[in-house]
């Protein structure tokens, strides 16, 4: 670490460069932790997102920061690095055909008297999870037997998801009737924001889960969403992750992936019922 008297001589954020060897170390590290494969094209992204951490610690090089997060004494910084390098773009009713399928095909066929349980396996800031919850509340009612579990590797996005508190610009994609039924508009100090109704949030729960490791005991689910995640994995990682999640799907349950993803060559246990939607026999 630089001496405090060297602060003026530190490179600016724009001047901090990463060598090919340093980038290779970070690429290997994020793959080992989260299964994410960073292409050479992501070098600029990594530099942009981690340079502020170098400045925070007054490091001159990425090698110093790498040593800091890998020497065992900085677990919080290691988690922050993962948070910074994972992509969390999401919005309400994204790829809405999936929710139409849930509403029209899955829910009407669900056995009466049994809880319906959904898992948003890369829930990010929660929009996918609460979209699912709204669809389930419409079908079963707010007093019905249903739950939505949300998990992510990033703690920071999970905190946002658990709060259910968003700026008003996040209402993009939310049907007006759902906004009225399941959201509360902020007033006074909370003006410009909205909050997911606590009665809806009562059916949700959250936990940090790394899909690249063995899963904890979670029970089983009627539907699992893993959308726009596998695009960051190499083929062996995809196979392992999907195999783990498939074990958590109830017979007859569904597995939903992103519109640019496929399970072809990845898993032959789940059968396609329509593009990006699979079912466990």
List keywords for this structure.
alpha/beta, three-stranded antiparallel sheet, Rossmann fold, 10 strands, Chemotaxis Receptor Methyltransferase Cher, domain 1, 38% helix
Helix/strand layout:
Layout: H1 20-34, H2 43-57, H3 62-70, H4 75-85, H5 97-106, E1 116-120, H6 127-140, E2 146-152, H7 155-163, E3 165-167, H8 176-182, E4 183-185, E5 193-196, H9 198-201, E6 204-208, E7 221-226, H10 235-246, E8 249-257, E9 271-274, E10 277-279
Parallel strand pairs: 1-2, 1-7, 2-6, 7-8
Antiparallel strand pairs: 3-5, 4-5, 8-10, 9-10
Walk me through the structure.
The chain is an alpha/beta fold. The chain has 2 domains: about 5-85, Orthogonal Bundle (Chemotaxis Receptor Methyltransferase Cher, domain 1), CATH 1.10.155.10; about 95-280, 3-Layer(aba) Sandwich (Rossmann fold). It is built from 10 helices and 10 strands. The chain has helices at about 20-35, 45-55, 60-70, 75-85, 95-105, 125-140, 155-165, 175-180, 200, 235-245, and strands at about 115-120, 145-150, 165, 185, 195, 205-210, 220-225, 250-255, 270-275, 275-280. It has a 7-stranded mixed sheet with strand order 6-2-1-7-8-10-9. The longest helix has 15 residues, at about 20-35. The radius of gyration is 21 Å and the shape is globular. It starts with 19 loop residues before the first helix and ends with a strand. Mean pLDDT is about 90; it is low at about 1-15.
């Amino acid at each position: 670490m630089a001496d405090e008297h060297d602060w003026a001589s530190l490179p600016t954020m724009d001047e901090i460069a990463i060598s090919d060897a340093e980038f290779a170390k970070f690429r290997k590290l994020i793959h080992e932790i989260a299964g994410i494969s960073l292409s050479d094209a992501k070098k600029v992204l990594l530099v942009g997102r981690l340079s502020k951490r170098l400045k925070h610690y007054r490091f001159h090089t990425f090698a110093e920061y790498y040593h800091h997060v890998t020497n065992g004494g900085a677990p919080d910084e290691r988690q922050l690095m993962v948070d910074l390098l994972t992509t969390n773009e999401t919005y309400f009713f994204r790829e809405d055909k999936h929710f139409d399928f849930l509403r029209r095909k899955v829910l009407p066929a669900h056995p009466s008297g049994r809880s319906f349980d959904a898992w948003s396996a890369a829930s990010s800031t929660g929009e996918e999870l609460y979209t699912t919850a709204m669809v389930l509340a419409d079908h079963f009612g707010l007093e019905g037997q249903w739950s939505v579990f949300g998990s992510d590797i990033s703690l920071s996005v999970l905190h946002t998801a658990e709060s259910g508190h968003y700026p008003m610009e996040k209402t993009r994609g939310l049907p007006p009737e759902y906004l009225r039924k399941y959201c509360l508009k902020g007033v006074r100090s909370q003006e410009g924001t909205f909050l997911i109704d606590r009665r809806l949030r009562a059916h949700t729960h959250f936990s940090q889960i790394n899909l690249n490791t063995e899963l904890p005991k979670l029970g089983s689910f009627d539907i699992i969403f893993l959308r726009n995640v596998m695009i960051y994995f190499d083929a062996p990682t995809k196979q392992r992750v999907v195999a783990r999640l498939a074990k958590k799907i109830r017979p007859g349950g569904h597995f939903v992936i992103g519109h640019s993803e496929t399970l072809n060559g990845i898993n032959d246990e789940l059968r396609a019922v329509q593009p990006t939607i699979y079912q466990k026999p």
